[in-house]
Amino acid sequence: MFVDHVTINVKAGNGGNGMVAFRREKYEPNGGPAGGDGGRGGSVIFKVNSGLRTLMDFRFNQKFKADHGQNGGIKGMTGRGAEDRIILVPLGTTIIDDETNTVIADLVHTDDQVVIAQGGRGGRGNVHFATPKNPAPELAENGAPGEERRVRLELKLLADVGLIGFPSVGKSTLLAAITSAKPKIGEYHFTTITPNLGMVKLSDGRDFAVADLPGLIEGAASGVGLGIEFLKHIERTRVLLHLIDVSGFEERDPYDDFLKINAELKKYDSDLLKRPQIVVATKMDLPDSAENLATLKQKLAQDTTLETPPIVMAISSVTHDGLTPLIRKTVEILDQTPAFPVKGVDDLEQMLNPEDQAAQTADFAINRDENGTWVLTGAKLERLFQMTNMDHEESTLRFARQMRGMGVDDALREKGARNGDLVQIDDFTFEFVE
Questions:
Q1: Could you tell me where in the chain the CATH 3.40.50.300 domains are found?
Q2: CATH 3.30.300.350, the chain: domain bounds
Q3: Tell me, which fold does domain 161-336 have in CATH?
Q4: Spatial CA neighbour of 40 closest among 80, 99, 96, 91
Q5: What are the residue boundaries of the OCT domain, all occurrences included (predicted)?
Q6: pLDDT tens readout for residues 287-335
Q7: Binding site: residue ranges?
Q8: Which region holds residue 76: left if phi is over 0, alpha if psi is between -120 and 50, else beta?
Q9: Closest CA to 322 of 290, 291, 298, 292
Q10: 365-432: what fold?
Q11: Is the pTM of this model over 0.70?
């Protein structure tokens, strides 16, 4: 099964908690703090594996977690850091944040890898908080939480040349004729239901990848047929071979086919029409092909909507006539054509209005629920809370000072908070005291 898009959840490991401990050795009655730091949580890393061809491995396994770091120990011992979780993906995978719809990474090289969820750092042990005024602090940090994300993976084939055209125009037959690929071929529409890749190797040592994309039909860009599933694979190609059946066997107008396929490309992404395109007249071994080819060339030459008439080449994949000139012309155009940028999804800056952007960057936000409780939210504030060990009074007082320094107290007063009102952060509730 060819799978080219999935949505998964990834969770990095939390950092280990710092330790509150003191030296308890003979002849050392006042040994001082000796609590070690927690270990780093494991990150989630996506790495290219050139041996993979689809995202099938993610179809039934959609949750990936890295391990947490170990807690700190006595005698200043640091907890063991967790191993990173390596997730292997095929070459050509685009990783998109499902919440913000922004592209995180585009893995197009064999050695590419990217950290998608950063592991939390380990919390500091009480050895870090000793001061002349407080030489024996009962204060340590919890480990920082690991990042958690929901991401979409989209596989876009890394092919230099894309074969496009209506069903049964000979795309799979051409791919089999010029490469060692063995696509399924049948005398009926939609024989090909998954993209196929093949490599064309020239005698001078050069080569290029060809993708046979399942047949487009009219309305594909709007979701009709198979085309919409695989149009995105055209985005990485540099040259398009537009195959058109000129045999007349299907009783279709070749020129009309040319216009309809290009219309679908334009609806999906108008930039696709900027790619060099060779019109490949197929099935030239059949009786009426030569006459229909002459008519097609005439209509293309008279089409005033085209900036320049496309290159037209005739082939027969069965007899192999015209294949060598077609390959040479394709290589010639490839040598002159740079890679096209892959169309990204909407940028976060365009999706959010100014108030939403401010909320994302603010240290904290204050709301009031239906019961009258003041609810504090915000990534920075919540992170500080999660790293506070509420089992120790000194840690709780430190968190209160941090909130005051961030301006939370003043903001609550401005909102109308009164002495004795309940304030909630995450699952922790306390009273507001003037």
A1: 161-336
A2: 365-432
A3: Rossmann fold (3.40.50)
A4: 80
A5: 356-434
A6: 989 999 999 999 998 888 887 778 999 999 889 999 999 999 999 999 9
A7: 165-172, 190-194, 212-215, 282-285, 316-318
A8: left
A9: 290
A10: GMP Synthetase; Chain A, domain 3 (3.30.300)
A11: yes
**How many Cβ atoms sit within 10 Å of the Cβ of residue 308?**
5
- Whether the CB-CB separation of 199 and 209 falls below 8 Å is answered with yes
Query: What top-level class would CATH report for the domain 5-155?
Result: mainly beta
The CA–CA distances, whole Å, from 352 to 116, 127, 347, 360, 380 equal 22, 44, 9, 10, 20
Quick: pLDDT tens for 18-55: 999 998 877 776 678 999 999 999 999 999 998 887 88
Q: What distance in Å separates the CA atoms of residue 136 and residue 377, rounded to the nearest whole number? A: 33
> What are the binding residues for Mg(2+)?
172, 192
Q: Which two tokens stand for residue 50?
A: 């050139």
Label residue 322 left, alpha or beta by phi (over 0 means left) and psi (-120 to 50 means alpha).
Answer: left
Q: What is the DSSP string of 3-15?
A: --EEEEEEEPPPP
pLDDT at 274 over 80: yes
Residue ranges matching CATH 2.70.210.12 in the chain: 5-155
Which segments are annotated as binding site for GTP? 165-172, 190-194, 212-215, 282-285, 316-318
